[in-house]
């Protein structure tokens, strides 16, 4: 195939930059995509057709007809221009030459020639605009179909040509052919079948045939680079999240049903501005489509539906989505003045009837409908489908209708007729149907036409109200392009009563022509511009369009103004506008903050008040949020260039104190992984950034400081600091005082709190701290004789050491920034007196109450917040909503059960726990109760490697049992499937039965749990096992429960009466056959197998009737089943049964099975998706 090439700007300095070889963009299949060679005309320079003698390059009209073929898009021709350039002295030309400028369509044009090739061994010829380089109008574009003909002036029958079409713009200024013709064929070599070369005497002519066509929509042949939908059309599209184009097309259709948009705006959402409220998120989406300048995302809406990522990448059924969305919005409008708006707008009435022909008797019912499903197959036009829909079926002969005791059997007409149509009529075209031969869903690509308007009154009941016209006008066409397994959805909509149609293709909105809306979406084979199905010289089957309409939206002409009423700002909920203004302001603030982020540095400040609130180790938790946690450090955002003096003033102003009486201590990381104050900042001249950079080994993106307030000031208001006191001469005095922080463990309230700081000499003893503590706590001068104050040093979270009363602080190795914890406690007889407990002693506890600080620190170290959920199938999540408990990770299984039992008010021995799958959030297996288990090992099991990486470490499911876990260990849990209504209804039950019990005990337990009528009341049960969708074995009543296979399914059903009678007669063991279901091949099994009674001599036509009753399958579901006998010896070759066959004779062996060959309805037939649901 020859290439059509885009040549860059002609004045480009680099010849290499001019070689742009791209695939032929304009010789394409009629669907706009590259087509097979059989389906397109190919121009190949190696096998160029020589035109017949009568066609001469000098016959411009004939040549124009030959080279400018009709275009698929059929644009209007504005002007045709032919211009010829005689090229002399070809061999002496430069690398690049320009032809004379000529005018076409009011714009200048010229031919661009590379005589010896644009970096190829072929001549390169292009068409380019003739504007001066700096004089191209802004936003200029021109759509051109053109051909370039190179020919011999001495013999015009010798020529070579190429044709293309292109949208010329300022950026794409030229277009043409880098490989126009090989140089070796041009000179000195006779042209094919001629006696002279194409270029003779170094001279040739180049004729440009330029056809200017109308760009009606503004996007003809557009490459959509930098395309702005809002600017070009006034509308914006919707972003595709993955496979949500079907959702986007429906939402745009509903959005431009203006009356629907207004109704949605009137749903009261002021009190529920939640992202789980689908009405609110739909309001937000519509508001953004009104106001946004760019494509809008649907993430908020789909999240409110409860959809997860996997749902985003599954294409759902648009009709089902439309119905469920309507139901949800109608539900949200209940109780408001707009309660009946949606039914009035989208719902009509249809009558199903059976009317007797000869007697005055009719049975009918009238129902609401929200859309009409019309058959495409077998119909050529929308009106034919409507007629097909209301066609009358005659009930006569053996199929007469029973008209009650008065009239008995009568000839009758059966059918449906419309009583009314809604203002907005949604028509679902059944493009996807089940193909019985292929046993799968198929897309119907047949041509199917629909009008711009039609009279629906033709399909109304004779008694319907005809006081107003029932004419409808087309408003929307929703299109599917592709096949069943892969496709794309988009919509054509007409937003206003008069005016343009627009194409809404995800995030792109463009104007659309009438042909694009109608003809292009009728489906069927492509038509060439001359009306043929394909070029006459091609004999293959017509090429089918991949795109066709699957949903049509019509509006009743008399209600157009009402439905397409303008939506103004006043119609938009005020709270919605306000919310978006707030969000926009917040976004702008965040944007500005991001832009200026490099200019600022964060500062985290520990104050006396934050320390007082801190119930944990160290002085604070630097990761805590100051907006929600009063113990979190205060956060300041300051310019990096600010001085430390500026920072001190800023903090003092916030704390409402004099900046002279505070000083900042730099917080540092100690080797034991604690964070403590190191020393005060004495020089306030450096910048905040310089101070941050000098802080040793900081692991935070913010400067961390502790702010100290002076206890006393001098006469002139200057602070007096106990140590690190600056002198007038600049010298800093450091004495033997050390800075210690005090924490109090409040045993009554079971918490730690900061009490402040103290300066004390290293030479002082631990007991010298007691009076200071007494004063700070307001406990008076002396404790009662039976109490004492006990002190510990908080070295690190897992190292809390007791302090000896008589030791000096120096001996205890205390230093600046150390933390001491104290508490009041009962005096014990001891010669040590205070803090006598040794560091090696382990705290012991018998209850949840912590009696000393060390026990509490141990709890803090192992504290874990766990979220508990009721098991979704074994418990009642509505009765027991999820909740959090703060627990000790060291607690045992029994202690965990005790805490949860206390919270739930249930017996802890009746609780069973399950771990949580981190990916799905579903319960995993039950946790086995063990003597050495604790909460930590339950949530973080070791020794299983990769298996446990998918387990939540902060959540558990619980189940409340009917018995204790100890008793449960003596039971076996068996999952039982109970069949009813033949085999069509399955109910699942988990039944517990004693491990030493028998099947009869299992049956008793099932009857009790499922509340089933007893065998005496409703008939005998059959209990059997199923393996891999096949009947495995029937279980005897005395069979031991412990021997039931864990990998089979236990099934229980009532034995049909005829089978009970046959069992009592027991004529022959061969009168039973195992039945199973499969799809196409016996190896593809599905469904529930069962045992079936075979009667001797019975024709299969009669057997099928009993099978229909036995299975409970009715109507089309049963009619589509093909029956066969599958023999174990030739398993892959089933013997299909005819009505005259006798099953007794065909299935003569005990090993034979009866196979039911039909589609597996348990799997979705379309795209592998599950049921569509909307939660919010």
UniProtKB/TrEMBL annotation:
The keyword Amino-acid biosynthesis does not apply. Its EC number is 3.4.19.12. SMART domains: MATH. It catalyses: Thiol-dependent hydrolysis of ester, thioester, amide, peptide and isopeptide bonds formed by the C-terminal Gly of ubiquitin (a 76-residue protein attached to proteins as an intracellular targeting signal). One of its GO terms (cellular component) is nucleus. Its main location: nucleus. Residues 80-210 form the MATH domain. GO terms for biological process: protein deubiquitination; proteolysis; regulation of protein stability. One of its GO terms (molecular function) is metal-dependent deubiquitinase activity. Residues 236-557 form the USP domain. Gene3D superfamilies: Apoptosis, Tumor Necrosis Factor Receptor Associated Protein 2, Chain A, Cysteine proteinases, Phosphatidylinositol 3-kinase Catalytic Subunit, Chain A, domain 1. Keywords: Hydrolase, Nucleus, Protease, Thiol protease, Ubl conjugation pathway. InterPro entries: MATH/TRAF_dom, Papain-like_cys_pep_sf, Peptidase_C19, Peptidase_C19_UCH, TRAF-like, USP, USP7_ICP0-binding_dom, USP_C. Pfam families: MATH_2, UCH, USP7_C2, USP7_ICP0_bdg. The keyword Protease applies. Belongs to the peptidase C19 family. This is ubiquitinyl hydrolase 1.
């Amino acid at each position: 195939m020859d290439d059509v090439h885009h040549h860059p700007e002609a004045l480009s300095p680099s010849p290499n930059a001019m070689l742009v070889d791209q695939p032929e963009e304009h010789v394409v299949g009629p669907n706009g995509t590259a087509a097979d060679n059989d389906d397109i005309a190919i121009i190949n320079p190696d096998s160029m057709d020589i035109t017949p003698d009568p066609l001469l390059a000098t016959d411009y009209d004939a040549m124009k007809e030959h080279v400018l073929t009709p275009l698929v898009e059929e644009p209007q021709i504005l002007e045709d221009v032919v211009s010829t350039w005689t090229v002399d002295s070809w061999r002496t030309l430069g690398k690049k030459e320009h032809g004379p400028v000529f005018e076409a369509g009011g714009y200048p044009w010229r031919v661009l020639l590379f005589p010896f090739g644009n970096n190829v061994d072929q001549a390169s010829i292009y068409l380019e605009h003739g504007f001066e380089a700096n004089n191209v109008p802004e936003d200029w574009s021109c759509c051109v179909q053109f051909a370039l003909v190179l020919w011999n002036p001495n013999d015009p029958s010798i020529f070579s040509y190429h044709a293309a079409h292109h949208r010329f713009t300022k950026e794409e200024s030229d277009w043409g052919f880098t490989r126009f013709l090989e140089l070796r064929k041009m000179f000195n070599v006779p042209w094919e079948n001629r006696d002279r070369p194409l270029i003779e005497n170094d001279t040739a002519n180049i004729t440009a045939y330029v056809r200017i066509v109308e760009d009606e929509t503004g996007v003809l042949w557009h490459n959509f680079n930098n395309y702005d939908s809002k600017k070009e059309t006034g509308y914006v599209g919707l972003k595709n999240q993955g496979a949500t184009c079907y959702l986007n097309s429906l939402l745009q259709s509903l959005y431009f049903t203006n009356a629907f948009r207004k109704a949605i705006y009137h749903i009261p959402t002021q009190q529920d501005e939640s992202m789980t409220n689908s009405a609110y998120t739909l309001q937000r989406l519509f508001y953004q489509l009104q106001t946004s300048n760019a494509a809008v995302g649907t993430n908020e809406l789909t999240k409110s539906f409860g959809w997860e990522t996997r749902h985003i990448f599954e294409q759902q059924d648009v009709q089902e989505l439309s119905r469920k969305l309507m139901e949800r919005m109608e539900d949200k409008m209940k109780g408001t003045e707009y309660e009946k708006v949606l039914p009035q707008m989208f719902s009509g009435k249809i009558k199903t009837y059976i009317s007797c022909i000869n007697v005055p008797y009719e049975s009918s019912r009238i129902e609401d409908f929200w859309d009409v499903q019309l058959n495409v197959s077998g119909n050529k036009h929308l009106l034919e489908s409507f007629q097909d829909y209301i066609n009358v079926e005659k009930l006569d002969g053996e199929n007469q209708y029973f008209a009650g005791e008065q009239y008995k059997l009568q000839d009758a007409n059966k059918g449906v007729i419309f009583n009314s149509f809604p203002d907005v009529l949604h028509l679902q075209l059944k493009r996807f149907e089940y193909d019985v031969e292929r046993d799968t869903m198929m897309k119907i690509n047949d041509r199917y036409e629909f009008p711009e308007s039609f009279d629906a009154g033709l399909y109304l009941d004779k008694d319907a109200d005809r006081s107003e016209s029932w004419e409808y006008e087309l408003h929307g066409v929703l299109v599917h392009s592709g096949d069943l397994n892969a496709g794309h959805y988009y919509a054509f909509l007409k937003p206003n009563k008069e005016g343009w149609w627009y194409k809404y293709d995800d995030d792109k909105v463009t104007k659309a022509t009438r042909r694009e809306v109608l003809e292009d979406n009728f489906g069927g084979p492509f038509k060439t511009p001359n009306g043929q199905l394909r070029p006459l010289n091609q004999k293959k089957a017509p090429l089918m369009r991949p795109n066709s309409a699957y949903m049509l939206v019509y509006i009743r002409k008399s209600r157009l103004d009402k439905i397409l009423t303008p939506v103004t700002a006043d119609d938009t909920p005020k709270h919605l506008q306000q919310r978006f203004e707030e969000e926009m302001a917040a976004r702008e603030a965040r944007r500005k903050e991001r832009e200026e982020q490099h200019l600022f540095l964060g500062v985290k400040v520990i104050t006396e008040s934050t320390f007082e609130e801190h119930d944990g180790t160290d002085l604070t938790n630097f990761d805590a949020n100051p907006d929600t946690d009063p113990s979190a450090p205060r956060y300041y955002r300051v310019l990096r260039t600010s001085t430390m003096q500026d920072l001190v003033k800023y903090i003092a102003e916030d704390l409402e104190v004099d900046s002279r009486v505070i000083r900042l201590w730099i917080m540092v990381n100690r080797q034991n992984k604690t964070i403590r104050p190191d020393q005060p900042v004495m020089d306030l001249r450096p910048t905040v950034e310089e101070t941050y950079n000098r802080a040793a080994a900081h692991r935070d993106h913010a400067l961390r400081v502790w702010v100290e307030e002076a206890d006393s000031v001098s006469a002139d208001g200057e602070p007096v600091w106990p140590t690190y006191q600056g002198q007038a001469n600049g010298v800093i005095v450091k004495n033997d005082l050390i800075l210690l922080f005090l924490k109090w463990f409040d045993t009554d309230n079971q918490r730690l709190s900061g009490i402040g700081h103290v300066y004390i000499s290293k030479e002082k003893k631990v007991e010298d701290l007691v009076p200071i503590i007494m004063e700070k706590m307001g406990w008076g001068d002396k404790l009662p004789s039976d109490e004492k104050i006990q002190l510990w040093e908080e070295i690190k979270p897992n190292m809390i050491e007791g302090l000896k009363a008589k030791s000096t602080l120096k001996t205890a190795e205390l230093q600046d920034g150390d933390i001491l914890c104290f508490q009041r406690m009962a005096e014990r007889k001891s010669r040590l007196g205070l803090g006598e407990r040794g560091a090696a002693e382990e705290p012991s506890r018998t209850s949840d109450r912590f009696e000393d600080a060390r026990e509490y620190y141990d709890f803090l170290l192992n504290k874990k917040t766990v979220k508990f959920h009721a098991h979704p199938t074994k418990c009642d999540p509505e009765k027991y909503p999820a909740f959090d408990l703060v627990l000790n990770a060291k607690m045992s299984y029994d202690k965990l059960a005790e805490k949860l039992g206390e919270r739930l008010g249930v017996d802890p021995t009746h609780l069973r726990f399950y771990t949580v799958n981190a990916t799905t959030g579903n319960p995993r297996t039950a946790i086995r109760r063990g003597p050495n288990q604790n909460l930590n090992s339950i949530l973080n099991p070791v020794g299983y490697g990769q298996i446990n990486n998918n387990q939540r470490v902060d959540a558990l499911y619980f189940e409340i049992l009917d018995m204790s876990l100890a008793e449960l260990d003596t039971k076996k849990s068996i999952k039982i499937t109970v069949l009813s209504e033949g085999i069509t209804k399955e109910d699942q039950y988990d039944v517990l039965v004693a491990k030493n019990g028998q099947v009869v005990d299992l049956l008793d337990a099932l009857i009790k749990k499922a509340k089933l009528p007893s065998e005496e009341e409703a008939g005998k049960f059959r209990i059997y096992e199923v393996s891999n969708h096949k009947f495995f074995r029937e279980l005897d009543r005395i069979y031991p429960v412990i021997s039931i296979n864990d990998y089979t399914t236990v099934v229980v059903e009532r034995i049909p009466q005829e089978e009970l009678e046959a069992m009592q007669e027991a004529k022959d063991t061969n009168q039973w056959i195992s039945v199973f279901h499969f799809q196409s091949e016996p190896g593809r099994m599905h469904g529930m197998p069962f045992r079936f009674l075979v009667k001797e001599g019975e024709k299969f036509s009669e057997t099928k009737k009993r099978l229909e009753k036995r299975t409970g399958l009715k109507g089309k579901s049963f009619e589509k089943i093909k029956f066969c006998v599958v023999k174990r010896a030739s398993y892959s070759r089933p013997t299909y049964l005819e009505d005259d066959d006798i099953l007794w004779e065909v299935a003569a062996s005990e090993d034979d099975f009866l196979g039911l060959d039909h589609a597996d309805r348990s799997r979705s037939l379309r795209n592998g998706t599950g049921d569509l649901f909307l939660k919010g």
